[in-house]
Each structure stands twice: as structure tokens, then as C-alpha cells.
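Quick illustration, no need to memorize.
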Amino acid sequence: MDFLFEVGAFFVSPAGMSHLAQILVLFFFIFAVLILWQQSRLMRRNLEEIHRINEQTVKRLSLVQDLLVKVRQDANKPDANLSFLTKLPGELREITKMMKNFEGEFNRMADSVNQKEQVTRAIEMAQRGMKRTEIVEATGLSAEQADTIVKFHGPDSA
């Protein structure tokens, strides 16, 4: 029982609180690294998906271009069979849909990168001693996010 009392007394002492704070900061940084690593994996996966969509779009655009070339060639022939033109509107709708998906993914990735830049900027501002309100105004982060950043990265956090 004395051992537990001594451990409890240690963590309440100034030295114990300092060690506890260091452990908490260490866990915070480990958590932050894990989140950034996960975001990196997600962005890599998104980029691969965008490349795949882009390749499909290029193939479909090539098919449409080939169809248009064929239309030009066949239109000049007196016995032209233009039945393949019925496929063209469907192909164009599919390409439009793929391009909208591509645009949505690109915008989502841009938002993610922008959010990371804002957090990095907020951390730098907190390390320089700026207050929560200044960080919120400069970065657009929420007050809760700014509070957390100031708490863990402000000059008093060490």
C-alpha cells in the first residue's frame, strides 16, 4: 500500500507533474504523427484514384475523337451508315460524369491540403506566442482548434 501512496505522491509533486506533462506532450506528438501519416496514405490513395479516373477519361475521349473522325469520313460517302452515332450521347454523358467525379475528388484533396496548411500556420503562430483570437482570425480555424493548438504548442506548453 505504501508503494501506491509513494507513486501517487510522486505524480502530485512538481517533478511528477513535469514528467506527466512531458508524457502527455509525447503522446500528443505521436498522435499527431499518426494522423498525418494516415492523411498521407489517404491522399496517396486519392491521387491513385484520380489517376485511374483520368486514364479512363482519356481513353473515352480518345474513343469519342475516333468516332468524330469516322463521322467526318463517313459523312462524305454517299451510302454512309451513321448508326454508331446513337452511342455518342451516352459516351458523352459518361465522360461528363467522370469529369465531375474527378473535379469533386480534386476539390476534396485541395480542401484537405488547405486545412493542413492552416493547422501548420496556427502551430507556428502559437509557438510565437500569438493568442487564440489572432489565430482564429488569421487561419479560419475554430476557437476549439485554436485553443488546443495554443495549449500544446504555445510558449507555456514546454
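The chain has a mean pLDDT of 80.
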